[in-house]
Write a structure and sequence with these properties.
- The chain is of the alpha/beta class.
- The protein contains eight helices and nine strands.
- The strands form two sheets. Strands 1, 2, 3, 4, 5, 6 and 7 form a seven-stranded mixed sheet that branches. It has a two-stranded antiparallel sheet with strand order 8-9.
- The N and C termini lie far apart (42 Å).
- The model has no long low-confidence stretch (mean pLDDT 90).
Length: 236
Amino acid sequence: EDPRIPILLNVLRLGYLAPPAAIAPQGFRDAARNLIEILNARVYGGEYLPCDPMDVIPVLPWRAALLFGEVYRAVGAEFFWHLGAKRNEQTLATEIYHESVPPYQMRGRTHVVCDPMLASGGTTCTTIARLIANGVERSRIVVQAIIAAPEGVFRVLTTYPEVCVFTCALDERLDRNGFIVPGLGDFGDLAFADLDDRYVQERWLDAGLLTRSQADLVRQRTRAIAAHAARTATIE
């Protein structure tokens, strides 16, 4: 195991296990990007994925997976499969509010479903199902996660045994609310708590990762989550 992995994972967990001020969003993003880069270095070019990361199709369930998109874009990935997905906190079912797919001639490439936190596996399995329905072969699908729960990995591998799952850490379990234990909190909130116009412009628009309309959807979703959190805090 790369000795940097547990150190970087501890950085990500600081905001969850310690006071919120323990790690700023920028520090969280930097640690997460480093983990993604380490994961890519170990997965690509060898026996696992004998290809280059610029030649795959990263599949990005919003918002959290956009950090994966930033890393892939930096190494030359050109086509992305964007999926605006959210989890219904009552049913744990995945709901889709946006989808943007690459040209059909790209279906023969390896498609990498990027899910920073593979918890129940609901979002990942929904994403895989949509790829298959759009003509991607099961053997051309892999999953990348920063942390995963055994239940989520089991669900993915039993539902789609042809799919490989790569993760930096396998945590203990899910709690009864479907959250990873020990986990690290809400990945999207921790990564994009300070999301502003400059970040969107430099990281997503100028880099060609998102279009303006897609970026607006992500920001709308971010504001909706923040408003919901504020209402919940007020009630409690």
